[in-house]
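Lab notebook, bench 4. The sequencing result for the construct came back, and we need a structural model before the next group meeting so we can plan mutations. Quick request posted to the team channel:

Model the 3D structure of this chain.
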Amino acid sequence: MSANPNWEPGTFFHLHEEDPVEEYENFKLGMWIFLATEVLLFGGIFAGLFIFKYNWPEVFRLGSQALDWKLGSVNTVILLCSSYTMAMAVDGAQRGKNKQLKLNLLLTLLFAFGFLVVKYFEWSSKFSYGYFPGSDLFFSVYFMSTGLHLLHVLIGMSFIGLVYFRARQERYHEENFGGVEVCGLYWHLVDLIWIFLFPLLYLLRH
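Done. Here's the predicted structure in token form:
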């Protein structure tokens, strides 16, 4: 990726006039700092999962068996595909291929929506069997961690929707792709978090 794309002044914030390249680099740095705080947040959740599993192995083993690993696997594949289409959207923006950009943003949104649909059926199934937040330690952790991840998915979808709207206005090209790149960074983090959550929650069979 080019480290020096022209960044439209005020693309996301209208604070003051500054060099377009400097504004882009500052915004990208801000996103990296934000992503670092997200890593720390979910790192704490992952550490808690390991500690709880170590202290209450039977609770986590039984809880994991109540989850549908097949649905979890489907959502894993969906998010991996969305990560690929997001990468292709960034590539399209960098190459000035607006059709490629818009198509892959829409595909990413479609995959994200598919993730929500699968999660809806998964949660509905748990509720029908009487599993709710607070049912026990495992399901408290399960709903908290997957719910927080779901919130990040919704935020990511809003971000992608905004970028798609700007792409329809042909705001992105070879010298101005910063918004798409930053959006891609956030979405890849959303995917990465799920890659860790899936085995920790769904595959704790023993």
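The two ends are 43 Å apart (CA to CA).
Will bring this to the meeting.
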